[in-house]
Amino acid sequence: EIESRHRLRGGWGGGGDREWGRGLPYDSALSQEALETLAEEAGFSGSEGRSLAFTRAASVLKALPGRLSTLEELGPLPGIGEHSRRVIQDVLEDGVCAEVERVKLSERYQTMKLFTKIFGVGVRTASRWYQEGLRTLVDLQERGTKLTRQQQAGLRHYDDLNTPVERGEAESISRAVQGAVQRCLPGTSVTLAGGFRRGKPHGHDVDLLLTHPEAGREAGLLSRVVSWLDSQDLILYQHSQENSYALQEGPEPPGGRDVMDRFERCFSIFRLEVQGGPGAARGWKAVRVDLVVAPISQFPFALLGWTGSRHFERELRRFASHERKMVLNSHALYDSRRNLFLPAVSEEEIFQHLGLEYVPPAQRNT
Ligand code: CTP
Ligand code: MN
Ligand code: MN
Ligand code: MN
After folding, report:
1. Which residues are involved in binding Mg(2+) (predicted)?
2. When you count CB atoms within 10 A of the terminal residue's CB, does the N or C end of the chain come out lower?
């Protein structure tokens, strides 16, 4: 049963932004979707560079004002390569691009999509399973595939975790965490980051940033918060990581793409009580939650880094390093010319250091 439902439906992975882009001209949205499919497929094949090129092209389309009816209108837009132009042209002329349709129908693409939507399964694992002849979620169970604790939880809650999280649900989880931190360390603030901070109506998870106005007080907070939430039966799965960042180590080497930050964090699955929706009969729904603890001095950088979008962060960091010779990450901003860290008490100040006009969260959806 799981098999037929999941193999046939497109999934909402790439489509998560489809609803978001609903106001767009129809054909432009279709081209974007086509390019995102190719980006996804390239990622499944391990071609990160190609994947990024298609993602960039899709973002350029997203940023275009008004309706796109001919390819000429695109002019010599930087960021749209020849392959992407061909895809856009096909979609404009025929409504579909044969290459993209072929990808969507391919067994490998569909299986990779199915497997990578399991929490804890990346391209490498999914690809190995595909090589081994596994095709469905049932296969994973019946053939006794070795799964990590995280993957077991991902499989157990597959449907819930692939159902978009609504803003109201995110706010309710934020309140629950707020309650927990007030018990453990009064004065701690809880900030909703990620897509919801950018104003998106849904997300794939809830990203919460914790900090305390007195430096150092946040140490050890996370494990107490998680224990308390767990004692209230609010947590279905969790995996915590300790803080491994020391400013003395100096900045990360520039150019390291998507380097993980090193805050104390917890990747978790919450058990959220619900009245309606898919989990209504059970009365609860599983929701992915990321909890991140930042010391107050790093908070603006953490907030900027965890608000996203991923693409916006990538471009901003690239701008910092190429145009300003500065290294920006979720911990700090480092000026390589002057050999010093540039402190900030707000996101606004970080943009000032970079010599950029402030970009509010709602405009970081590119
Ligand atoms: N992020 C990060 N380190 C991670 C995971 C995420 O710095 N280990 C950042 C990402 O760069 C992104 C933000 O946190 O900018 C939110 O990530 P994510 O939850 O994956 O994406 P959202 O933009 O929130 O989109 P969604 O609604 O799908 O959750
Ligand atoms: Mn909705
Ligand atoms: Mn998120
Ligand atoms: Mn997240």
Report:
1. 205, 207, 290
2. N
In this predicted structure, the answer to whether residue 212 has a pLDDT above a threshold of 90 is yes
Residue 7's contacts (CB-CB under 8 Å, 6 or more residues apart) are: 110, 114, 135, 136
pTM of the model: 0.86
Give the confidence band of 5 by pLDDT, cuts at 50, 70, 90: very low
- From the candidates 207, 233, 261, 335, which is the catalytic residue? 207
pLDDT of residue 246: 60
How close is the Cα of 236 to the center of ligand 2, in Å? 24
Q: Which long-range contacts (CB under 8 A, 24 or more apart) does 148-153 make?
A: 148/120, 149/237, 149/239, 150/119, 150/120, 150/237, 150/239, 150/267, 151/118, 151/119, 151/120, 151/121, 151/125, 153/119, 153/120, 153/236, 153/237, 153/269
At residue 238, φ and ψ (nearest 5 deg) are: -155, 150
- Closest ligand relative to 16 C-alpha: 1
230 is catalytic: no
Predicted complex ipTM: 0.95
pLDDT at 256 over 50: no
Residue 279 has pLDDT above 50, yes or no: yes
Q: Is 1 a residue whose pLDDT tops 50?
A: no
> Which listed ligand is nearest to 203 at the C-alpha?
1
Residue-averaged pLDDT of the chain: 88
Does residue 85 surpass a pLDDT of 70?
yes
Q: Is 218 in the pocket of ligand 1 (CB under 6 A)?
A: no
In order of their start, the domains of the chain are 1-105 (1.10.150.110), 108-159 (1.10.150.20), 165-297 (3.30.460.10), 304-363 (3.30.210.10)
CA of 206 to the centre of ligand 4 (A): 6
